[in-house]
Design a protein that fits this description.
By secondary structure, the protein is an alpha/beta fold. It has ten helices and seven strands. Strands 3-2-1-4-5-7-6 form a seven-stranded mixed sheet, with helices on both faces. Bound molecules: the ligand O=C(NC/C=C/[C@H]1OC[C@H](O)[C@@H]1O)c1cc([N+](=O)[O-])cc(O)c1O and magnesium ion.
């Protein structure tokens, strides 16, 4: 049978990118998705906004919900100082298998913990299993209808504390209306919308950054 799109993305990385060079991995995926096949990576335009937020927060512990092929995992991990790490959750085992290889090709495996499974199952175990106190940054990019329930679960588990930054992809397209309404109306969050475009297209999309103010 035909290869999958994630497999074709990995091939493009192995053909075009240099082992140990995260920027070349990012460039190879963006080129493939812009000129060959669209794929749901955060992409170069929104990726630059992601970069600026990561640099501003300079997080020690990052949680990424939704790994896909590892494109945003590499974008985040390449900016982390020694000792900092990103835990990334992916439900789909085929995506996870590709992402592991993309992350390895970039040489960033020491800064990444890729976990296969459902966010709702894993979040309650984060403290115990990974020794995480609270996350400095959470990048939401998984199932859009899971953004709100998982945010509430992270709050309940004490994994979001004063100063934690939530950065959510696709708040316009495909859209996460209930999540947006929550973070924009809650007195416990300070929210800002970074207007951009759906990856590799001219359609509007953007990232919502929400800082938790504490209880
Ligand atoms: O569904 C999106 N992301 C969530 C991914 C969900 C998939 O990964 C876990 C599960 O196996 C599911 O099939 C998405 C969709 C679009 N889109 O334009 O359709 C654009 C994006 O940036 C996205 O993150
Ligand atoms: Mg997305």
């Amino acid at each position: 049978t035909r290869t999958s799109r994630p497999q074709r993305i990995l091939k493009a990385v192995q053909r075009k990118a240099t082992v140990g060079d995260p920027q070349s991995v990012i460039t190879a995926i963006d080129h493939f998705c812009r000129h060959r096949e669209w794929a749901m990576n955060v992409g170069d335009e929104k990726g630059s906004i992601l970069d600026s937020v990561v640099s501003e927060v300079s997080p020690v512990t990052v949680l990424e919900l939704g790994t896909y092929c590892g494109y945003s995992t590499v974008r985040i991990a390449r900016l982390l100082p020694p000792g900092a790490c990103v835990i990334t959750l992916e439900f789909n085992p085929d995506y996870a298998a590709i992402a592991r290889q993309v992350i390895q090709w970039s040489g960033l495996e020491d800064k990444v913990q890729l976990v296969e499974g459902a966010s709702g199952d894993w979040i309650p175990w984060m403290k115990e299993h990974f020794g995480v106190q609270a996350f400095d940054l959470v990048f939401l990019d998984h199932w859009k209808e899971r953004y709100l329930p998982d945010t509430k679960l992270l709050e309940e588990c004490g994994l979001i504390q004063k100063g934690t930054v939530l950065l959510a992809d696709n708040v316009i397209c495909p859209g996460t209306p209930d999540y947006l309404e929550y973070v924009r109306n809650s007195p416990r969050y300070n929210s800002h919308y970074y207007r951009s475009h759906l990856e590799y297209t001219k359609a509007e999309d953007g990232l919502e950054k929400s800082v938790f103010l504490g209880y």
